[in-house]
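> forwarded from #structure-qc
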């Protein structure tokens, strides 16, 4: 049975978390805060897996008034644990925290850094700062309010290989598709084809809650949901135009989606508005596929389709990574190819790169091309971690953020794309300055 220990300085919230996880108050043998409390293992169920949960008591490492017995127990607990929940507070980092950080360094592979007391406004942002300590996994919670506990459990399940987070998305997971584009590009036609019913006749009833889902369908064993998007439901032209040209509406749709199909009339090409929408999609880290529709109307003379694609690539380099597919929604042509592309993009969106693999790669990229010198000496990239999937975001810890050369960030992005398998999606790379 795996052993999970909770470690942290006194008053950081260990007991509160412990009680929350096991779902009851357990007896504490000695009320003196921190030091002399005994280690009390409890049976806990993580998912459906039985585990042993241990509160380390107040671990104190090499400090005055330090209780040898507790300390020794605590240290041997660390080596015996399969996972260590190391608790810190989002509001303060103390010398005791720093000492524990050092003591935990040898076990960093099995540490989940739990940032507690993330319950006030704006505190979410503080969690980011804790990536600087170099642990692969960080989760923000509020033990008192029960926030973030599910994330904590999911992460633990992954760490203990009880459910592998690296595998394909679970069967129950749905790929959320938004179909966007100018009026008359064929959005309704494609939606009807995919969900197999005439959705365009469904009209909104004023004053009722908006139904955001147009329909669902399966393809090769995966489930897809088509979100309601401006212009799919029949409306007056004016209304539709207003919706497509409203940034707020577009952002709302994009935020709900995993992958956006940007429908473009193959003959007309990309409009300025398409480019703006595409920019929003990229900035929010969503998957985007350019769908050239109505290819049945192309003459087939020369390599017309390729010329259209080249033109888009040339005029819109920011979408260099986005797949371009061509279909005829009306004739049902190449829809399978489109859905295969959607699936590929979805896989990349949900891909997670191991921190050790990433850091190997960062070393190699740095050897191939060193960060440039600034007025205060060379810039350095110490290490990095994948902060999130879907949207895919990386954090890089550097010696100096000020004037960090954008060209080097671009270089890192290109390397991540090329070497780590994120060729078809937008990725974000954020910098953090490492302390000391
Ligand atoms: P929406 O405004 O983007 O939802 O566009 P619609 O789906 O209503 O399509 C606009 C018009 O284009 C309709 O007359 C469709 O029949 C037509 N259309 C849609 N897809 C295709 C296609 O692949 N080929 C051709 N030739 N016409 C299409």
């Amino acid at each position: 049975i795996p052993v999970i220990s909770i470690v942290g300085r006194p008053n950081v919230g260990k007991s509160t978390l412990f009680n929350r996880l096991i779902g009851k108050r357990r007896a504490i043998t000695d009320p003196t805060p921190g030091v002399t409390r005994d280690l009390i293992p409890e049976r806990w169920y993580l998912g459906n897996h039985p585990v042993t949960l241990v509160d380390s008591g107040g671990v104190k490492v090499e400090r005055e008034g330090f209780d040898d017995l507790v300390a020794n127990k605590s240290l041997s607990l660390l080596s015996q644990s399969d996972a260590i929940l190391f608790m810190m507070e989002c509001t303060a980092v103390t010398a005791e925290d720093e000492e524990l950080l050092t003591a935990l360094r040898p076990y960093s592979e099995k540490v989940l850094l739990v940032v507690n007391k993330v319950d006030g406004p704006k505190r979410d942002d503080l969690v980011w700062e804790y990536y600087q300590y170099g642990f692969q996994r960080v989760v923000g919670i509020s033990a008192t309010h029960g926030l973030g506990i599910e994330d904590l459990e999911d992460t633990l399940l992954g760490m203990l290989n009880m459910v592998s987070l690296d595998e394909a998305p679970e069967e129950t997971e749905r790929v959320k598709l938004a179909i966007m584009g100018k009026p008359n590009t064929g959005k309704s036609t494609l939606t009807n084809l995919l969900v197999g019913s005439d959705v365009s006749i469904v009209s909104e009833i004023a004053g009722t809650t908006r139904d955001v889902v147009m329909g669902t369908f399966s393809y090769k064993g995966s489930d897809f949901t088509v979100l309601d998007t401006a212009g799919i439901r029949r409306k007056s032209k004016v209304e539709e135009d207003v919706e497509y040209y409203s940034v707020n509406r577009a952002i709302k749709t994009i935020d709900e989606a995993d992958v956006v199909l940007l429908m473009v009339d193959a003959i007309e090409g990309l409009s300025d508005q398409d480019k703006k929408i595409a920019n929003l999609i990229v900035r929010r880290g969503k998957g985007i596929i350019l769908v050239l529709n109505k290819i049945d109307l192309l003459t087939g003379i020369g390599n017309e389709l390729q010329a259209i694609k080249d033109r888009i690539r040339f005029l819109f380099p920011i979408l260099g990574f986005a797949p371009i597919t061509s279909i005829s929604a009306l004739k049902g042509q190449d829809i399978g190819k489109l859905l295969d592309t959607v699936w590929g993009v979805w896989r990349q969106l949900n891909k997670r790169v191991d921190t050790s693999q990433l850091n190997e790669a960062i070393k190699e990229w740095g050897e191939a091309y060193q960060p440039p010198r600034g007025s205060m000496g060379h810039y350095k990239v110490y290490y990095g971690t994948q902060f999130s999937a879907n949207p895919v975001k990386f954090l890089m810890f550097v010696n100096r953020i000020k004037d960090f050369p954008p060209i080097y960030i671009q270089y890192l992005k290109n390397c991540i794309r090329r070497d780590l398998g994120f060729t078809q999606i937008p990725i974000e790379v954020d910098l953090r300055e490492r302390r000391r």
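QC bot note: Residues 181, 183-189, 231-232, 293-294, 296-297, 328-330 surround guanosine-5'-diphosphate (CB under 6 Å). Confidence is low (pLDDT under 50) at residues 59-70, 164-171, 200-211.
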